[in-house]
Fold Iron(III) transport system ATP-binding protein.
Amino acid sequence: MTATLDVTDLRKQFAIGRPAIDGVSFAVPAGEIVVLLGPSGCGKTTTLRCVAGLEHPTDGEISIGGRVVSSPMRGILVPPRSRDLGMVFQSYAVWPHMTVRQNVVYPLKHRKITRTEANRKVEEALELVGLSEYADRPVVALSGGQMQRVALARSIVYRPQLLLLDEPLSNLDAKLRLRLRDDLRVILKQTGMTALYVTHDQAEAVVLGDRIGVMRNGKLLQMGTPDEIYNRPADLFVANFTGATNELVGTLVSRSGEFGVVDFGDGRRGEAALLQSLSPGEKVRIALRPENIGIGKQDGANIFPARVLDRRYQGTQTVYAIDLFGLRLEALELGTAARHQVGAETQVSLPREACWAYGDSGPSPYE
Ligand SMILES: Nc1ncnc2c1ncn2[C@@H]1O[C@H](COP(=O)(O)OP(=O)(O)OP(=O)(O)O)[C@@H](O)[C@H]1O
């Protein structure tokens, strides 16, 4: 039976340093895949290990399927083996001296099921991960990607109520990683399992997650669908981490509903979407994705003169460095033909719904 996961106000303080987890709350509904995304050291692995029972939280509560498995306040700490979890880690946790089938059947050995039933479950798990033909091969004769499929089959063969995955693709080469990434979502959705997945790779998060939680410094900054995270980032860090690599700075002059007029200095004004509560007179920072900058375009509201500083072909796209207001911004155009010459004076259009304005509190992730 697949189950919901509830994490409430989770805290973890190790012996030294700032809290590794600092008041994190989220829920994973039954059958959903939630991805925790963030840079190294943000606390995502510690969160997953607390859910697994491998780490003892300092405070907060964790429930799986409505049963509290961890609550320091109430003196509850259910050991990992009693939480009915499956786990897949970065390293291929397979037994090298066994065949694929022996590896996958292993977790069923101590369960009270018949041999026929166990064989049926193993066949089903191998079929799901696409390894039916490899059942009797020694596991050491497989590629890294196949070994990770074995580890996955072994974690889902007993249909635990929750599956935990910690960077399971990071030891694979680029091609295998992409293939298994795409397959993984299909496999997880076929099993209908609830899954918590940890990664620092935003592309992985988008492909796999029904929802993504972005973490930084032990805090959960935003939890939302990939569309929400990508198109309405809650703050500058989320915007920057998910690819809005350009920043403009200005002062909010006036606001009208969700949009506002921003003064960039020297009489240059443009419109921006206000993603935080902002008042006229406030200094604002605007995050902008390279792909949302239109070079050589003269339509829309925010049209400004600019100059092409540099360009790099990247196969199916071209990345330009452009000078705008004396700043160096990155712009990206799809297509195999580079249309703009280095040194060209041109115009750029910045769609107002793609100019995300935030307050100026705290350090900027762009500096
Ligand atoms: N056993 C430990 N003892 C002391 N500090 C720890 C321990 N484990 C983790 N930390 C610290 O807790 C913080 C969060 O670490 P965590 O491994 O959860 O981050 P992460 O986002 O998963 O990073 P990575 O992707 O590098 O694993 C870091 O500052 C780390 O140094």
Remarks:
- Residues 14, 17, 20, 38, 40-46, 200 surround adenosine-5'-triphosphate (CB under 6 Å).
- The chain has two domains: 5-236, 244-359.
- The chain has a mean pLDDT of 92.
- The helical segments are 44-52, 100-105, 115-129, 144-156, 174-191, 202-208, 226-231, 236-241.
